[in-house]
Amino acid sequence: MAGRKTATDFGWKVIRRLAEKELTRKEFCSINNVSQSRLSEIITGNTTRNTTAIRLKVSCLLEIDDCDRT
């Protein structure tokens, strides 16, 4: 599909954990005060902004192994 971005390896981990927790992206973002657009950028790796802090927050909230990264 034109315009669709594919997920990075980390993005797939996020998607899988959200499915395991039975949360939509929108629900996760609302509960944890994370911007939906920032989460999308983290999943696709398509960003011009520094998303390191938010990526760390997401990985810790979803208990993804990337949580130890500083």
Structure description:
This protein has 70 residues and is mainly α. It has one domain: lambda repressor-like DNA-binding domains (434 Repressor (Amino-terminal Domain), Orthogonal Bundle). 56% of the residues lie in helices and 0% in strands. It contains 4 helices and no strands. The protein has helices spanning 9-20, 25-32, 36-44, 52-61. The protein is globular. The model has no long low-confidence stretch (mean pLDDT 87). InterPro entries: Lambda_DNA-bd_dom_sf (IPR010982). One of its GO terms (molecular function) is DNA binding. This is XRE family transcriptional regulator.
Short description:
This protein has helices at 9-20, 25-32, 36-44, 52-61.
Any key phrases for this structure?
70 residues, mainly alpha, 434 Repressor (Amino-terminal Domain), DNA binding, XRE family transcriptional regulator, Lambda_DNA-bd_dom_sf
Q: Assign a percent range to the helix content.
A: 55-70%
Low-confidence stretches: none
CATH class: Mainly Alpha
User: Span between N and C termini?
Assistant: 35 Å
Work out the count of structural domains: 1
The portion of residues forming beta strands comes to: under 5%
**Average pLDDT, all residues:** 87
CATH architecture: Orthogonal Bundle
The general outline is globular
Helix/strand order, N-terminal first: HHHH
Reconstruct the topology from this structure.
Layout: H1 9-20, H2 25-32, H3 36-44, H4 52-61
